[in-house]
Amino acid sequence: MTQIKLSKEQRQYLKSLAHHLKPVILIGDKGITDTVITECKKSIAHHELMKIRISGADREARNAAIVQLEDSINATVIQKIGHVVTFFRRNHAEPKISFTGI
């Protein structure tokens, strides 16, 4: 599957929704494991929009981890700020976020 294309307005709307969210998954020194990917898939399927904190890595390692996660969970990166990244993936069976009026 490929990541969805979002308009600038949709991306801004998702950023505003994610503003109050806390990271639901914390990635530590072990990096991205199969367990982390499984939990990310479960979380993104349930919430559609989630934040992940990637700790203890330099910028290149964080960016590589973000790309790996993006491909593994078929999600779109909405925003990266420091160690926190926001992902979005539409749940077509039970959508929770509506883009009507945007």
Please characterize this protein's 3D structure.
This protein has helices spanning 8-18, 34-47, 59-73; strands at 25-27, 49-54, 76-81, 84-88. With 102 residues, the chain is an alpha+beta fold. The protein has a domain at 27-88: YhbY-like (Translation Initiation Factor IF3). It has a four-stranded mixed beta sheet with strand order 1-2-4-3, sandwiched between helices. A hairpin with a 2-residue loop joins strand 3 (76-81) and strand 4. The longest helix has 15 residues, at 59-73. It is globular and about 40 Å long. The mean pLDDT is 92.
Provide a compact summary of the structure:
With about 100 residues, the chain is α+β, with helices and mostly antiparallel strands. It is built from three helices and four strands. It has a domain at about 25-90: 2-Layer Sandwich (Translation Initiation Factor IF3), CATH 3.30.110.
List the helices and strands and how they pair.
Layout: H1 8-18, E1 25-27, H2 34-47, E2 49-54, H3 59-73, E3 76-81, E4 84-88
Parallel strand pairs: 1-2
Antiparallel strand pairs: 2-4, 3-4
Strand numbers in spatial order across the main sheet? 1-2-4-3
Instruction: Enumerate the spans where pLDDT stays under 50 for 5 or more consecutive residues.
Output: none
Helix content: 25-40%
CATH class of the domain at 27-88: Alpha Beta
Distance from N terminus to C terminus (CA atoms, Å) equals 25 Å
Give the oligomeric state of the chains in this entry, treating copies of one chain as homo and distinct chains as hetero: single chain
Radius of gyration: 13 Å
Query: For the record, what is the CATH homologous superfamily label of the domain at 27-88?
Result: YhbY-like
Amount of beta strand: 15-25%
Mean pLDDT: 92
Structural class by SSE content? alpha+beta
Q: Biggest β-sheet, characterized?
A: 4 strands, mixed
H/E series: HEHEHEE
- Note the total helix count: 3
Count of distinct strands: 4
CATH topology tier name of the domain at 27-88: Translation Initiation Factor IF3
Report the CATH architecture of the domain at 27-88. 2-Layer Sandwich
